[in-house]
Amino acid sequence: MTLAPWRSPLARALHRNRSLAASRYPQLATVKPDGRPANRTIVFRGFWSQTNHLQFITDQRSQKVEQLQHSAWGELCWYFGKTREQFRLAGKLSLITAAQPDPSLASARTALWQNLSDSARQQFAWPNPGGNWLEKPAFTPDLPDAQIPLPNFCLLLLEPTQVDHLELRGEPQNRWLYQQQTNGEWSLKSINP
Ligand SMILES: Cc1cc2nc3c(=O)[nH]c(=O)nc-3n(C[C@H](O)[C@H](O)[C@H](O)COP(=O)(O)O)c2cc1C
After folding, report:
1. Does 1 reside within a domain?
2. pTM of this structure
3. Which of 53, 92, 144, 172 maximizes the CB count within 10 A of its CB?
4. Containing domain of residue 97, as a range?
5. Quick check: is 44 in a domain?
């Protein structure tokens, strides 16, 4: 797969904002079954292999996973504070669970688990997210195996079909719209900010 044209401005933004930890924490919006939006902060975990699919990790028991069963559409909103630019990446989300039959996706999930810190892995052994509050000891379970992911650990992939890039710097501001066509090619146009 060739790199989509929005990859280089996004890579540039990630590089120029690398001193700000928060520049790897975009917000991901999904659609609730009642049609209302749901939004949350999530850590960007790089691209899957040689594709344009963005990787995230999440807990299968979380609300966002339930929302995906009703609508696979998602939109990532990403602001880079140092360079003052925003990317909005919209597309389909796919959840890679423990039951994933494709070996390359299954190994991407395992690799992300193995790269986590112990404390990040431990969060997947915490009580049900969003459940009634439990006493603190419930949040100090034994450390899970560092090699084999817990069953509720998921890789979440976003495959963008539209990317809206706004640069606040400049007189006037700059805004570009990347859209994927039905043949898979990307179009790019400058639009009004
Ligand atoms: C800085 C930051 C990073 C986060 N990273 C993740 C993440 O990588 N994956 C994740 O599922 N939740 C992450 N969260 C928690 C989510 O924002 C959210 O609270 C949680 O996933 C439950 O969301 P849901 O009920 O919409 O499923 C992060 C929160 C913050 C503040």
Report:
1. no
2. 0.96
3. 53
4. 7-190
5. yes
